[in-house]
Each structure stands twice: as structure tokens, then as C-alpha cells.
Amino acid sequence: MELSLLAALNAERQARRAAILVTEIASGAQRLVKPEAIAADPLGELLERQLRTGKSGMVEVEGSSYFLTVQAPHPRVVVTGAVHISQAMAPMARALDLDLVIIDPRTAFATPERFPDTALLAEWPEEVIGRIGLDGYTAFVALTHDPKIDDPGLTAALRSNCFYIGALGSRKTHARRLERLAEAGFDAAATARIHAPIGLDIGAVSPAEIALAILAEIVSTLRGPRRQPG
Amino acid sequence: MISTETDILRAAEDWSHSGRQVAIATVVETWGSAPRPVGSHLVIDGEGNFLGSVSGGCVEGAVVAEAAEVIADGKARMLEFGVADETAWQVGLSCGGRIKVYVEKVN
């Protein structure tokens, strides 16, 4: 591998951008394909399919073997609300190998004591989200019930291509939220991206159960399409 | 702690920048109960230092030895390890799986 190619691959990963390194086994020829160039690549369809799985693998095309090193950004969950549910979520996300970032400007909530070993930002979402960036490998979850904190996060998420957006709250709370988002200029198709009520319907009651339901919904969205029953 | 594929490829770049000769070994195919998934990397330098793993310890020695050849002649190689292989009795996978490992030099 050319060092410049290795450096380019590492740079894409550093920037949380997907990329595929194509290696033709017989000749050793290699090229780096970025998502925007997939359609024009001779192996386009195969690359597209492989990128969706997020896994590296060998493919055969017209008698030639190619190894595809798929580099998809690490999935990440960005949460507004350093609350009970996110406290329960932190160790679960770790076990699932999901990066977790918790945002809450209320410094009484966002304390390292309550969130050991967790990326915690005691700032307003509008201040931090531009900095951390929301992308197609990010799930956004609003948990505070406080529009002052949740709405700026949701607005940023709706403007991004986050793979999952979820918001905690009763149907009534969510109806009011939808009204506010409509006033902010988001049409029904845009706000339909928000999972609310949030989480898989497992009858969750405790904060840990709700955290489980939310993470299960995130994993299902990330890894879907779901297996068909029977 | 170096625990992810991410850090390993970064290390390969850093080693190479610092003037070390480097080879990258990648698990490209697995059959049966292979210990490390496709895409796992082992990075080896000219002195035989290595980072990462392609099998959780079963065949690393053989891969490191082969990497020295790759670094010497610059030619990439495909290695195969497994119970069906002649060399299995020396360097096989105790779990009964089979793996193919692609070893290439960083130029």
C-alpha cells in the first residue's frame, strides 16, 4: 500500500467520513473510493452494498478478486439531557460499543460524579452541536423534556442526516413539540423522522428499561432492515 | 491501549513516517469459527515488532515471519491458515476455523 493512500484512509476516518479501500488481489492495485465517488466506480453497486453492511469483505467480479476494506465511522449517540435515563444509558452504550456524548447546560445535572467515564458537555446544544457535528452515523436523542434544551438539538438533528432521531415525551408533549417545529419551518415529512414515543415498545417503565428500549431502537435502525418474521 | 483497527492503521502510518519498514496484514476471508473478523489488521515492522492481531495469537508468529519476506521483496502475499492446510499441524487454528490473510508492504 502506498503510504499516501494509508494516510488518506486514516484522514477520512479521523474526519468521521466513510471510505472504501479497494485492493485487487491479483495485481495488488489499490484505490480509495469515497461515498460521493461510488456511483461512478466500476464496482459501484458492490461498493454501495458493502458500505451499507459496514463490514470489510472479499468480492469476485468477472474472475477477479477484490478485497474491500470498508471504513464506516463509529456509530455515535448524542443525547441532550444528563438525566436518569442517560445515566442508565451510559454503561449500556459502552457495552454496545456505541460512542455516547451527553449535552446538558444545567451544571447540577451534568456532573462527572453522575456520569463517570462519559463524554459530558455542560453547554447549550446550539453551542456544542456545530462543534461535534451530526452526521449519518450519529443518532440524536432528546431527553430533557425542556424545549429550551431539546429543541435546538432536534432542530440541528433534523437539518443533518442523522440516522436516528428520537425525543422523549408523552403524545401531548410531542404534539406541542411538533407545533413548535412546524413554526420553525419543518414540514410533516421532516418531523416524521423523529421517533416519538421514543424506543421500542417493550413496556419500559424504569429509566434503565427506557434506556434499553431507546438503544434497541437505535441498533435496529442502524443494522436494519429488520429480519422478516417466519 | 491499542484496541481497535483504527489505532492500528494509524500506528502503521506513524511507524512508516518515522522511517520504519512496515507491512500490513489483513484478514480477508474466514471460514468456520475464526477468532478474528474479516478486516482485522496486524501491523509489522522490519524488526518484527507488531501491533494488533489476525487470529488472537494462533498464527501471528507465522504472519510476522512472512511479513519480513514481504518487506524484503515488496511483493504482497496471500497466506492461508487452517485445519485443511498442510501446515496446520505447525501453525493451525486450534478452533478448527480457516483464515486467509493478505500481507502487503507500505511504500
TrEMBL record, chain A:
It holds the Pfam family XdhC_C. InterPro entries: MoCofactor_Util/Proc (IPR052698), XdhC_Rossmann_dom (IPR027051). Residues 77-218 form the XdhC Rossmann domain. This is Xanthine dehydrogenase accessory factor.
From TrEMBL, chain B:
Signal peptide: none annotated. InterPro entries: MoCofactor_Util/Proc (IPR052698), XdhC_CoxI (IPR003777). It holds the Pfam family XdhC_CoxI. It comes from the Bacteria. This is XdhC and CoxI family protein. It comes from Bosea thiooxidans. Residues 15-82 form the XdhC- CoxI domain.
